[in-house]
Amino acid sequence: MLAVLAGGAWVAVNQVAPSSTVVVERCTAVSGEGAQRTEYDLAPDQAANAALITAITQQRGMPARAATIALATAVQESKLRNIAYGDRDSLGLFQQRPSQGWGTPEQIQDPVYSTNAFLDVLIKVDGYADEPITEVAQRVQRSAFPDAYADHEPEGRAYASALTGYSPAALTCRLRPVPDSSAEAAAADGYWPRTQPLVDAFARERGTRVAIAPADEGAGALIGAPVSRGAVEDAQRRTGWSAAQWAVAHAADFQVVAVGTDGKQWRRDRPDDGWVDVPEADRARLAPAGAAVVLVAGGRVE
User: Fold this and answer.
1) Whole-structure pTM over 0.85, yes or no?
2) Which domain of life is it from (predicted)?
3) Does the pLDDT of residue 2 top 80, yes or no?
């Protein structure tokens, strides 16, 4: 603890030990290459909400454009946070109003409900996948500032493209280390206790469209169906990357320490490395094509 003089008053501030590292947590989605490369940063809770919104569009079988529109709208309305306040009685990710028939305050504050409520209206907009985002979002939201949605379209597109798997290795997170965890015994269903919250969240956000099972590595989950032989189709590869980048976006929530797919792996303890190649001999168990291996604290990470 250190006391410093600020504005004529002594203020106590915490000092960081010389050996400690201050980690500014953030998630980053990248679009473009070379001179066109652009990075879009979100806090971990914002990235998790982006993953949730995108996953629900996928659960409903909607195109990636729907995720772009929903994300740009949520960035404008709430900065991608499930806030409990707003203009008049507006609430939640999309600032929906109970008085305008969007649901009860409790319902609107449930991100899954509010996202589905937004998409229920969006899907009724003719040509929503092709029309300008300002027109489409405005027909759903009835905002006083309709032009503002377009300001967030590039960011929404970058996260939607990564989270739907169209942009592989495009989303990473820099997070604080997970406290040391000892191994646990698996439950009767094969999942380790620390894995269950992640499994429950995936089922809630993605439904049953993509399979999920215990990972061979212990505390973790295998999302999707690995392709062990023959050529990997684009749709299969996208499934793996979508699940993998969903898990990275939720890594802060569920103590995720490593995620692998398509021969590459993201590791929490190596944030500067991004997605790195996994040795050929280890790809089937750590980074299979068409699926994602998600390891949480307590699992074996090599």
Assistant:
1) yes
2) Bacteria
3) no
